[in-house]
Design goal:
Rossmann fold; alpha/beta; two-stranded parallel sheet; five-stranded parallel β-sheet; 11 strands
Length: 241
């Protein structure tokens, strides 16, 4: 690849990645600090990967994922993982229609674009494994029917590492489905003061959607092209600096 082609590609990247700053600005309305977490969420978003956030309660894991979802104009589903959850509660099931005398598919919350699997390690293995096919193959099988999930599709999960009673650690096959596992640390002292000030004042900011599905898919396609051209290091700097 010559310098002219690289220059054209760089210009295209700058144009297609303009929405990243807007997303960071919107997410920053509710998330104070945690730049490492925000950047990795965007990285997984662009590289079509799933992400697992691990940290103690109160570090804004769920809030960060919800804020990111609000900034992107796509479908969003939140699934609260609990010990009594069943696979059908995630992927859906067959419902008998008495009027028609047949079974019909009732789709579950997995049929969306962004999926928040909150506290994923609180559900048993059979429920966790219900996500495997969707995360890897982007399809869901219910009965004899197989449905292709709509793009973009991304699973963002959270888990609490300090409580082991009543939890089900993720098996290796499940962890392998996540592109990134991010361990969240406590914010800095000044950031904590700002967080407390916002909570005391009751400040709640509305997140506005700044990018749609078509723009996101176009950006993901460009990332694939850049990686294929083996320019990943330079591309990463352009997208995130």
């Amino acid at each position: 690849m010559d310098n002219i082609e690289i220059g054209i590609l760089n210009d295209q990247i700058k144009q297609e990645s303009s929405f990243l700053d807007l997303i960071k600005e919107e997410v920053g309305k509710n998330i104070i600090g945690q730049k490492y977490m925000t950047d990795r969420l965007l990285l997984a978003l662009l590289c079509q990967g799933h992400i697992l956030l691990e940290g103690v309660p109160g570090l804004a894991k769920t809030l960060a994922i919800k804020s990111l979802s609000d900034a992107v104009s796509v479908g969003f589903s939140r699934i609260q993982f609990t010990p009594d959850l069943l696979p059908a509660d995630i992927i859906g099931t067959m419902i008998y229609n008495q009027g028609k005398g047949n079974f019909e598919v009732r789709k579950g919350p997995i049929f969306s674009n962004f999926i928040l699997a909150d506290e994923i390690n609180r559900a048993p293995a059979k429920v966790q494994s219900a996500l495997l096919q969707a995360m890897q193959e982007k399809v869901i099988t219910i009965g004899n029917e197989t449905f292709k999930l709509e793009e973009p599709f991304m699973v963002m999960a959270t888990q609490n590492p300090i409580e082991q009673e009543g939890t089900y650690p993720l098996p290796e096959a499940q962890v392998d489905r996540f592109m990134l596992k991010i361990k969240i640390s406590y914010p800095e002292f000044e950031e904590e003061r700002q967080i407390m000030r916002q909570n005391v004042l009751g400040i709640e900011s509305k997140i506005n959607p700044v990018v749609n599905a078509k723009q996101l898919i176009a950006a993901r396609t460009l990332v694939k092209k850049c990686i294929w051209m083996k320019k990943l290091n330079s591309i990463y700097c352009i997208w995130f600096l």
